[in-house]
């Protein structure tokens, strides 16, 4: 099935939005995720429905069909393998790789994908801690944790995953030691969702506004060790 890059981007966006949910994804959510207008989303969703890639229910939203999910997972696999390859073999910073991988993910062959995976020894996660789907295109079984905002003052947690799409946020977090595998102490939760935390080995706190904190996924140390 030949799909445009934009179609694949929509399927990947819906897949991301469905990550922790069973309900349908609304047009407005897709529009916000992709920074486009709702009418633009409606038009594209109709095309994807015609191709059998999404199941749409009027006024309730969409969900991926089995075929659409397969396409989305393949694009996600390409993207995350490319991010890992760029950081490990081409010395890209983790804040730089998202846009580069976005440009390349639609155009690599299956042979190239296989060779990249082999060169990386089939990694389970990308540089940001996001699980890499396997070659069987089944959704990753690894659960990376919950948003740091789900925890309480005084909790100690371990960073499992950080969203990869904002280079400035990634650079800020890296400067304060907030990376996958690092232990965090949640020191204060202020009104309006501002979280203050401190990473192990650092002498300064890091401030995590709500819009940043919800993209940092963590787990209790016992869960990570288990």
- Outline the low-pLDDT stretches: none
Strand percentage: 15-25%
> Any idea what the radius of gyration is?
18 Å
Q: How many DSSP E strands?
A: 8
Mean pLDDT: 92
Helix content: 40-55%
SSE order, one letter for each helix or strand = HHHEEHHHEEHEEEHEH
Straight-line N-to-C gap? 42 Å
Major sheet strand order? 3-8-4-5-6-7
- Overall geometric form: globular
Largest sheet: 6 strands, antiparallel
Characterize the structure shown.
The protein is an alpha+beta fold. It is built from nine helices and eight strands. The chain has helices at residues 5-17, 27-34, 38-50, 66-89, 97-104, 110-119, 167-175, 210-213, 221-225, and strands spanning 54-57, 61-64, 146-147, 156-162, 183-189, 195-199, 206-208, 216-219. Strands 3-8-4-5-6-7 form a six-stranded antiparallel sheet. A two-stranded antiparallel ribbon has the order 1-2. Strand 6 and strand 7 (206-208) form a beta hairpin. The longest helix has 24 residues, at 66-89. The chain starts with a helix and ends with a helix.
SSE layout and pairings?
Blueprint: H1 5-17, H2 27-34, H3 38-50, E1 54-57, E2 61-64, H4 66-89, H5 97-104, H6 110-119, E3 146-147, E4 156-162, H7 167-175, E5 183-189, E6 195-199, E7 206-208, H8 210-213, E8 216-219, H9 221-225
Antiparallel strand pairs: 1-2, 3-8, 4-5, 4-8, 5-6, 6-7
Helix pairs in contact: 1-2, 1-4, 2-3, 4-5, 4-6
